[in-house]
């Protein structure tokens, strides 16, 4: 529902089973900063089969792709001799065995090169080229000084934050009742102290003292609101 309202949602799925994987529309595989596949998820198995990586029966496609990238797949082991012949000259030492993050760099290079030679890459490159041309013409017209850094303006942000704070106050009436009670008691105490002040020079000084006391109390009592920002900041981050 949120995505249909135009929001971008990012979430992480660890080891998705096939019933979840088949819901994916588009699939992108990355390793060592290189794209190994980008295209429809349903065509991924067919693509890897065309370049010599056959998925074993009853194997989860998501696990199969991760095994290929990590060099743990039986298809990788079977075609390792082919990889060495096509390798670009980068060697992996026998002590380490694998490159950074347990990913075989030779396998990554081969898969990346095969993807660059595929029709999927060419179609993606053409689509990105059209998008860049469209953005380039728009960027020339717009000035950098008027660049919008937030999706919504200040008034929109203030409205939603205020609405959220009001809901929190309504849902925690005990805190509001306690604040009202403290304020009423303090008002009675201050009123009793400065009750019956005369209209002379000493009365003016007393009124100044009462205003100073009330103002100072309000300033220090509002400092406690900073705790809300600190607590909400942790949740936000």
TrEMBL record:
Residues 14-84 form the ABC transporter family G domain. The chain crosses the membrane at residues 177-197. It comes from the Eukaryota. It is a multi-pass membrane protein. Keywords: Membrane, Transmembrane, Transmembrane helix, Transport. One of its GO terms (cellular component) is plasma membrane. One of its GO terms (molecular function) is ABC-type transporter activity. Residues 156-236 form the ABC-2 type transporter transmembrane domain. The keyword Lipoprotein does not apply. Its main location: membrane. InterPro entries: ABC2_TM (IPR013525), ABCG_dom (IPR043926), ABCG_transporters (IPR050352). It is found in: Membrane. Belongs to the ABC transporter superfamily. ABCG family. Eye pigment precursor importer (TC 3.A.1.204) subfamily. This is ABCG2 protein. It comes from Pygoscelis papua (Gentoo penguin). The lineage of its organism: Eukaryota, Metazoa, Chordata, Craniata, Vertebrata.
């Amino acid at each position: 529902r949120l995505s249909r309202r135009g929001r971008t949602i990012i979430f992480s799925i660890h080891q998705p089973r096939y019933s979840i994987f088949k819901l994916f529309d588009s699939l992108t595989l990355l390793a060592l900063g290189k794209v190994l596949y980008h295209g429809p998820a349903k065509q991924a198995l067919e693509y890897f089969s065309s370049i010599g990586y056959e998925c074993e029966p009853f194997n989860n496609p998501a696990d199969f792709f991760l095994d290929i990238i990590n060099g743990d797949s039986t298809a990788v082991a079977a075609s390792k001799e082919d990889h060495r012949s096509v390798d670009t000259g980068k060697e992996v030492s026998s002590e380490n065995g694998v490159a950074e993050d347990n990913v075989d760099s030779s396998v990554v290079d081969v898969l990346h090169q095969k993807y660059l030679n595929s029709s999927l890459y060419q179609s993606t490159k053409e689509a990105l080229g059209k998008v860049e041309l469209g953005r380039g013409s728009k960027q020339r017209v717009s000035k950098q000084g008027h660049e919008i850094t937030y999706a919504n303006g200040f008034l929109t942000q203030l409205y939603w934050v205020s609405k959220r704070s009001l809901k929190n106050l309504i849902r925690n009436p005990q805190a509001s009742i306690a604040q009202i009670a403290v304020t009423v008691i303090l008002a009675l105490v201050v009123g009793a102290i400065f009750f019956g002040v005369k209209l002379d020079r000493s009365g003016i000084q007393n009124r100044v003292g009462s205003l100073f006391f009330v103002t100072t109390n309000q300033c220090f009592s509002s400092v406690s609101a900073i705790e809300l920002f600190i607590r909400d900041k942790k949740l936000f981050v």
